[in-house]
Amino acid sequence: MPKPRTEYFDLDAYRQLADLSTQIVQHVHNERWLPAAALCRAYHRALCKIQHNVALSPSQQKARRALLNTILANDAEIRSLMHPESQFIHLALQSQPSQKLEHSYYN
Fold first, then answer.
1. Percent of the chain with pLDDT over 90
2. What is the number of domains present in the chain?
3. Which one has a higher pLDDT value, 67 or 107?
4. For the domain that residue 29 is a member of, what is the CATH number?
5. Each residue of 17-43: pLDDT tens digit?
6. Tens-digit pLDDT profile for residues 39-77
7. 55 lies in which domain range?
8. What is the DSSP letter of 89?
9. 3-state SS assignment for residue 9
10. Are 68 and 19 contacting, i.e. CB atoms less than 8 angstroms apart?
11. Distance between CA 63 and CA 13 in Å, rounded?
């Protein structure tokens, strides 16, 4: 009889996502689009393997959080490399002094 889903959790899919996203960043930096696209397909397959609603031990939660931080940092870097204008817009918006909504409407 198979074990209930809540009795196990494997970080291999998260490790694979972190590794693949790191490789994608490297290919995008080198403007190697075809290998990056191929890795994106592999990334999607690995993403589909992630189990949801699985009970995690505190040590598993910590390991998962570290892997997710790597994955998210790589994703942000890929996005900024793919759409550099969005980074300039973000920086421009950050440099502007904040305005009250009312001021924007009435002036």
1. 36
2. 1
3. 67
4. 1.20.58.380
5. 999 999 999 999 998 989 999 999 999
6. 999 999 888 878 665 777 889 889 989 999 999 999 989
7. 5-106
8. H
9. coil
10. no
11. 12
As given in the structure block, the two tokens for residue 54 are 């699985």
Distance CA 98, CA 94 (A): 9
* Location of structure tokens 């995690």: 56
pLDDT at 49: 79
Q: What share of the chain is helix, strand, coil (3-state, %, to 5)?
A: 75, 0, 25
Report pLDDT for 79.
85
What DSSP designation does 3 have? P
Encoding tokens for residue 38? 């191929």
Q: What is the pLDDT of residue 6?
A: 42
Give Cα separations from 68 to 12, 29, 103 (angstroms).
Answer: 12, 21, 40
**Whole-number pLDDT of residue 73:** 93
Exposed (0-12), middle (13-18) or buried (19+): which is 83, by Cβ within 10 Å? exposed
Determine the Cα–Cα distance for residues 99 and 96; give it in Å rounded to an integer. 9
Q: Which of 45, 55, 56 is nearest to 20 (CA)?
A: 45
